[in-house]
TrEMBL record:
InterPro entries for this protein: TM_pro_TauE-like, TSUP/Inactive_protease-like
Name the record gives this protein: Probable membrane transporter protein
Highest taxon, organism lineage: Bacteria
GO cellular component, one term: plasma membrane
Subcellular location, record wording: Cell membrane; Membrane
Coiled coil start-end: none
Family listed: Belongs to the 4-toluene sulfonate uptake permease (TSUP) (TC 2.A.102) family.
Transmembrane spans: 7-29, 76-95, 107-126, 146-173, 185-206, 212-233, 240-257
Lipid bilayer topology: Multi-pass membrane protein
UniProt-annotated stretches for the region Disordered: 283-319
Cited Pfam families: TauE
Main location: membrane
Length: 319
């Protein structure tokens, strides 16, 4: 059966999600290939990474032009992240061979997806806190040891599962540099992900796991999806999309771990309800804030001419 059409559509939907939220590439595409199209897990990981090598630069170029890439952070991430991503491929092979390997890989992907969900929830919570306080300037100092550790852990997870270059590493960067501007976080993460994903993809090519034909088919839909998502990102509410990703990735992760359907529903339905409730509350709060009247002049219009006649520098104006 020819899966080209459905694969292109899946690539477009995943690309759209990445363009809108900056997250969800490997975390969505790999489980879709495994659970919907029956691709074996190692081939799904390798093919997704090969596709991501060509998809990531589109967002990175936009951020580089906008000046939102912290190259000092990138320089501290890559020395550990790139070799860890390449080595993660061979660490994955240490889990076994044949059917045993594919079964173990499904469990590893499931665990990585749930870890990505946790990271997304942490990121949303941090974003809400950051909304109440002004960001620091772009010259927040780098924490070298923490950043090297982030590269080591994040790169290993990416090499083993293709998950994490957007959903895990960016959260760890937020935790290590909590006052770094949000747009600098996203731009830095997109740029560092290019060599990290390329190293992981190379490892899977060496091992013979990546299907380049499958990756090319995905890219036919993914590239226009990313571009469209980036254009729509200023018009569509991010919280609703992120909660949809949280529910979807939770269900995918639990399915990869062979959790019974009843348990899956018992987890995902309340999670979806909580996400809908929080999103509605955020919208109402934003609507109330935009509907509030702007601060009036110093006077209150009650006939107190002296108070009503105060200039912009607090100088009393002549009556």
């Amino acid at each position: 059966m020819d899966f080209s059409g459905p694969l292109i559509l899946s690539g477009a939907l995943v690309g759209l999600a990445v363009g809108l939220t900056g997250m969800g590439g490997g975390a969505l595409m790999t489980p879709i290939m495994v659970m919907v199209f029956g691709v074996n897990p190692t081939a799904a990981i390798g093919s997704d990474l090969a596709a991501s090598v060509f998809m990531k630069p589109f967002g990175a170029v936009v951020h580089q032009r906008a000046g939102t890439v912290r190259w000092d952070l990138v320089r501290w991430l890559l020395p550990t992240a790139v070799p860890a991503a390449f080595g993660g491929v061979f660490l994955l092979r240490a889990l076994g061979e044949g059917e045993a390997l594919q079964r173990h890989v499904k469990y590893v992907i499931g665990g990585a997806l749930l870890l990505a969900v946790l990271g997304m929830l942490v990121r949303m919570a941090l974003d809400r806190r950051r909304g109440a306080a002004p960001d620091e300037s772009g010259d927040v100092p780098v924490r070298p040891l923490a950043t090297l550790g982030i590269g080591l852990l994040g790169g290993t997870v990416v090499g083993m599962t293709s998950v994490g270059s957007g959903s895990l590493i960016i959260v760890m960067l937020m935790l290590a540099h909590p006052r770094l501007r949000a747009n600098h976080l996203v731009g830095t993460d997109l740029v560092q992900a290019i060599p990290v994903v390329a190293a992981a993809a190379l490892g899977h090519l060496v091992r013979g796991d990546a299907d380049l034909g499958l990756a090319a088919t995905l890219l036919v839909g993914a590239i226009p999806g990313v571009l469209l998502g980036a254009r729509l990102s200023t018009r569509v509410t991010g919280p609703a999309l992120r909660w949809a990703l949280v529910v979807l990735l939770t269900g995918s992760g639990l399915s990869m771990l062979s959790v019974p359907g009843a348990v899956l529903l018992a987890v995902c339905v309340p999670l979806a309800g909580a996400g809908a409730g929080l999103t509605l509350r955020e919208r109402r709060r934003a609507a109330a804030s935009s509907a509030a009247p702007p601060p009036g002049p110093a006077g209150n219009g009650d006939g107190d001419g002296d108070r009503d006649r105060v200039g912009p520098e607090g100088v009393r104006l002549p009556t």
